[in-house]
Design a protein that fits this description.
single chain, Elongation Factor Tu (Ef-tu), domain 3, SH3 type barrels, six-stranded antiparallel barrel, six-stranded mixed sheet, 5% helix
Protein backbone atom coordinates (compact mmCIF):
# COMPACT_ATOMS: atom_id res chain seq x y z
CA UNK A 1 0.00 0.00 0.00
CA UNK A 2 1.28 3.46 -0.91
CA UNK A 3 0.89 6.47 1.34
CA UNK A 4 -0.93 8.45 -1.37
CA UNK A 5 -3.63 5.73 -1.37
CA UNK A 6 -4.22 6.24 2.36
CA UNK A 7 -5.31 8.88 4.82
CA UNK A 8 -3.64 9.84 8.08
CA UNK A 9 -5.63 8.49 11.03
CA UNK A 10 -3.46 9.37 14.00
CA UNK A 11 -0.22 8.91 15.89
CA UNK A 12 0.90 6.39 18.49
CA UNK A 13 1.77 8.60 21.45
CA UNK A 14 2.06 6.40 24.51
CA UNK A 15 2.14 2.89 25.93
CA UNK A 16 -0.93 1.95 27.94
CA UNK A 17 0.24 -1.19 29.68
CA UNK A 18 3.21 -3.48 30.02
CA UNK A 19 1.40 -5.93 27.71
CA UNK A 20 2.04 -3.89 24.55
CA UNK A 21 -1.15 -1.85 24.45
CA UNK A 22 -0.79 1.56 22.83
CA UNK A 23 -2.64 4.88 22.85
CA UNK A 24 -3.27 6.66 19.57
CA UNK A 25 -4.30 10.29 19.20
CA UNK A 26 -6.73 10.59 16.32
CA UNK A 27 -7.03 13.22 13.62
CA UNK A 28 -10.84 13.09 13.52
CA UNK A 29 -13.90 14.67 15.06
CA UNK A 30 -15.58 11.26 15.31
CA UNK A 31 -13.19 8.82 17.04
CA UNK A 32 -16.00 6.31 17.67
CA UNK A 33 -16.09 5.69 13.89
CA UNK A 34 -12.79 3.82 14.18
CA UNK A 35 -13.50 1.48 17.12
CA UNK A 36 -14.34 -1.48 14.85
CA UNK A 37 -11.13 -1.55 12.79
CA UNK A 38 -9.56 -4.94 12.15
CA UNK A 39 -6.25 -3.59 10.88
CA UNK A 40 -4.28 -0.42 10.21
CA UNK A 41 -1.09 0.57 8.44
CA UNK A 42 1.76 1.77 10.65
CA UNK A 43 4.45 3.90 9.03
CA UNK A 44 7.82 2.40 9.93
CA UNK A 45 10.95 3.78 8.22
CA UNK A 46 8.83 5.47 5.51
CA UNK A 47 7.01 2.20 4.70
CA UNK A 48 3.41 1.34 5.51
CA UNK A 49 3.32 -1.95 7.39
CA UNK A 50 -0.04 -3.69 7.99
CA UNK A 51 -0.87 -4.54 11.61
CA UNK A 52 -3.86 -6.61 12.67
CA UNK A 53 -5.78 -5.39 15.70
CA UNK A 54 -6.57 -7.80 18.52
CA UNK A 55 -8.57 -5.30 20.60
CA UNK A 56 -9.53 -1.66 20.30
CA UNK A 57 -11.52 0.79 22.41
CA UNK A 58 -11.98 4.49 23.02
CA UNK A 59 -9.78 5.98 25.71
CA UNK A 60 -10.87 9.25 27.34
CA UNK A 61 -13.20 9.80 24.34
CA UNK A 62 -10.51 11.29 22.05
CA UNK A 63 -7.95 8.48 21.77
CA UNK A 64 -7.88 4.84 20.78
CA UNK A 65 -6.44 2.13 22.99
CA UNK A 66 -5.09 -0.54 20.64
CA UNK A 67 -3.63 -4.00 21.15
CA UNK A 68 -1.96 -5.15 17.95
CA UNK A 69 -1.55 -8.86 17.27
CA UNK A 70 2.03 -10.01 17.95
CA UNK A 71 2.81 -6.91 20.05
CA UNK A 72 2.68 -8.13 23.62
CA UNK A 73 5.69 -6.58 25.33
CA UNK A 74 6.91 -3.14 26.33
CA UNK A 75 9.86 -3.49 23.96
CA UNK A 76 7.62 -4.23 20.97
CA UNK A 77 5.37 -1.31 21.95
CA UNK A 78 8.39 1.01 22.38
CA UNK A 79 9.37 0.33 18.77
CA UNK A 80 6.00 1.73 17.60
CA UNK A 81 5.94 4.89 19.74
CA UNK A 82 5.74 8.00 17.57
CA UNK A 83 4.66 6.06 14.49
CA UNK A 84 1.73 7.27 12.41
CA UNK A 85 -1.35 5.20 11.54
CA UNK A 86 -2.97 5.20 8.11
CA UNK A 87 -6.05 3.63 6.55
CA UNK A 88 -6.97 3.14 2.87
CA UNK A 89 -8.85 6.07 1.31
CA UNK A 90 -11.86 3.86 0.54
CA UNK A 91 -12.52 3.57 4.30
CA UNK A 92 -13.20 7.28 4.64
CA UNK A 93 -16.87 7.86 5.38
CA UNK A 94 -18.50 9.73 2.47
CA UNK A 95 -19.14 13.42 3.04
CA UNK A 96 -22.19 15.27 1.82
CA UNK A 97 -23.19 18.85 1.15
CA UNK A 98 -20.42 21.42 1.25
CA UNK A 99 -18.02 19.24 3.24
CA UNK A 100 -15.16 17.56 1.38
CA UNK A 101 -11.85 15.80 1.79
CA UNK A 102 -8.90 17.69 0.37
CA UNK A 103 -7.79 14.77 -1.83
CA UNK A 104 -11.22 14.44 -3.49
CA UNK A 105 -11.38 18.00 -4.86
CA UNK A 106 -8.06 18.02 -6.73
CA UNK A 107 -8.98 18.72 -10.36
CA UNK A 108 -12.30 20.40 -9.46
CA UNK A 109 -13.00 23.75 -11.11
CA UNK A 110 -13.34 26.81 -8.88
CA UNK A 111 -16.13 29.17 -9.84
CA UNK A 112 -16.84 32.46 -8.08
CA UNK A 113 -20.26 34.11 -7.97
CA UNK A 114 -18.80 37.53 -8.84
CA UNK A 115 -15.77 36.54 -10.92
CA UNK A 116 -16.96 33.50 -12.89
CA UNK A 117 -14.71 30.51 -13.60
CA UNK A 118 -11.31 30.94 -11.93
CA UNK A 119 -9.44 27.72 -12.72
CA UNK A 120 -8.68 24.18 -11.55
CA UNK A 121 -7.62 23.14 -8.06
CA UNK A 122 -4.13 21.65 -8.31
CA UNK A 123 -3.51 21.20 -4.58
CA UNK A 124 -4.55 22.21 -1.09
CA UNK A 125 -2.06 23.84 1.26
CA UNK A 126 -2.85 22.68 4.78
CA UNK A 127 0.56 23.67 6.19
CA UNK A 128 -0.42 27.27 6.95
CA UNK A 129 -2.64 28.75 9.66
CA UNK A 130 -5.44 28.96 7.06
CA UNK A 131 -5.96 26.07 4.61
CA UNK A 132 -5.76 27.29 1.01
CA UNK A 133 -7.08 26.20 -2.38
CA UNK A 134 -4.18 26.31 -4.86
CA UNK A 135 -5.70 27.07 -8.24
CA UNK A 136 -4.20 27.14 -11.73
CA UNK A 137 -5.88 30.02 -13.56
CA UNK A 138 -4.40 29.66 -17.06
CA UNK A 139 -0.86 29.44 -15.72
CA UNK A 140 -1.28 31.91 -12.84
CA UNK A 141 -1.34 30.49 -9.32
CA UNK A 142 -4.28 31.76 -7.27
CA UNK A 143 -4.55 31.11 -3.53
CA UNK A 144 -7.98 31.27 -1.90
CA UNK A 145 -8.60 30.56 1.79
CA UNK A 146 -10.81 27.53 2.44
CA UNK A 147 -13.51 29.25 4.44
CA UNK A 148 -17.01 27.90 5.08
CA UNK A 149 -18.52 31.36 4.49
CA UNK A 150 -16.96 31.49 0.99
CA UNK A 151 -18.18 28.02 -0.06
CA UNK A 152 -21.66 28.15 -1.57
CA UNK A 153 -21.77 24.77 -3.36
CA UNK A 154 -19.68 21.63 -3.77
CA UNK A 155 -20.88 19.84 -6.89
CA UNK A 156 -19.32 16.37 -7.02
CA UNK A 157 -21.14 15.32 -10.19
CA UNK A 158 -19.92 18.24 -12.29
CA UNK A 159 -16.71 18.61 -10.25
CA UNK A 160 -16.83 22.26 -9.31
CA UNK A 161 -16.87 24.37 -6.16
CA UNK A 162 -18.84 27.60 -6.19
CA UNK A 163 -17.41 30.35 -4.00
CA UNK A 164 -18.38 33.86 -3.05
CA UNK A 165 -15.07 35.51 -2.23
CA UNK A 166 -14.61 39.05 -0.98
CA UNK A 167 -14.45 41.63 -3.78
CA UNK A 168 -10.94 42.05 -5.13
CA UNK A 169 -9.43 38.84 -3.70
CA UNK A 170 -9.19 37.01 -7.03
CA UNK A 171 -8.30 40.22 -8.89
CA UNK A 172 -5.16 40.53 -6.74
CA UNK A 173 -3.78 37.55 -8.66
CA UNK A 174 -5.23 38.03 -12.11
CA UNK A 175 -4.82 41.77 -12.69
CA UNK A 176 -1.35 43.05 -12.95
Amino acid sequence: MHKEDCFFLGKIVKKYSFKGELLVTLDTDEPETYTQMESAFVEINHNLVPFFIESISLHKSRMLRIQFEDCYSEEEADALLGCELYLPLDLLPPLEGNKFYFHEIIGFTIKDINHGEVGKITAVNDQTAQDLFIIDADGTEVLIPINDTFIKEVNREQQFILLETPPGLIDLYLEG
